[in-house]
Design goal:
By secondary structure, the chain is an alpha+beta fold. It is built from 4 helices and 10 strands.
């Protein structure tokens, strides 16, 4: 089960794969993807600016997309402004060929013989005064998010019942798409109290973590995997 990502946040990103126009880094859980305004909290962007100063003039130092603070795994980085435009378009489903696979541990079991599923939902405005995203069965085209998933394993011995899923994010990603989408389906991610999961931790200090990992990214046939965390 998850460990405290504050310990992981002390780790630095690592390069998983390097190509002429882009590369992929492993973002630790507990680290921001982009630098935060008026905040010196660790981020992948700050690490890139320190380790690759020759590319500091590219917007967000070439970052193509973002992961939530407590999500770990693959982050795609462009090596030029031109490559960043192309990769962002491809990542959003507007051209090119990029596949995005995640590992997610969700609460509960699925019905017997259910080994796969999918959802198409609308992810729109946040709840007033909350970071939570509103989810519904229909909405404007620019709010629609799609995922499909497969069951990898289930666990119920000595811990709350949970299921490990492999989730593919289809088309343009929406904010909290997997987190809010799986909660809407009745299976919030383990540790994701924002969307109704049970709190994890001890009487001394609660563990801040969600069981979501950007496991694999495939760019025009080149597949890059990030080693899964202990909870997977």
């Amino acid at each position: 089960m998850p460990t405290d990502p504050h310990a992981e946040s002390l780790l630095l990103p690592t390069v998983l794969h390097d190509e002429p126009h882009w590369f992929v880094v492993n973002k630790p859980a507990g680290m921001h993807t982009v630098a935060q305004p008026n905040n010196d909290a660790p981020s992948v962007e700050a690490w890139l600016r320190a380790t690759r100063p020759d590319r500091a003039d590219i917007e967000e130092c070439g970052l193509v997309h973002r992961l939530d603070l407590d999500t770990s795994g693959c982050v795609l980085v462009a090596k030029s402004a031109k490559a960043r435009v192309w990769l962002r378009d491809a990542f959003s489903g507007r051209g090119g060929d990029i596949r995005k696979m995640y590992l997610a541990r969700v609460e509960g079991f699925f019905a017997e013989r259910v080994i796969a599923g999918a959802f198409t939902l609308s992810f729109s405005s946040r709840h007033k005064g909350s970071a939570k995203v509103s989810v519904g069965p229909r909405g404007e085209p620019e709010t629609i998010g799609r995922c499909r998933w497969n069951v990898k394993s289930s666990s119920g011995a000595g811990e709350p019942a949970s299921t490990l899923l492999e989730v593919e994010l289809l088309g343009p990603g929406r904010r909290h798409q997997i987190r809010a989408g799986m909660a809407h389906e009745g299976h919030p991610l383990v540790g994701d109290t924002l969307y109704g999961a049970r709190a994890l931790g001890t009487d001394i200090a609660p563990i801040r973590a969600i069981c979501l990992h950007a496991w694999r990214v495939e760019v025009e046939g080149i597949q890059v995997e990030c080693p899964p965390p202990a909870w997977a």
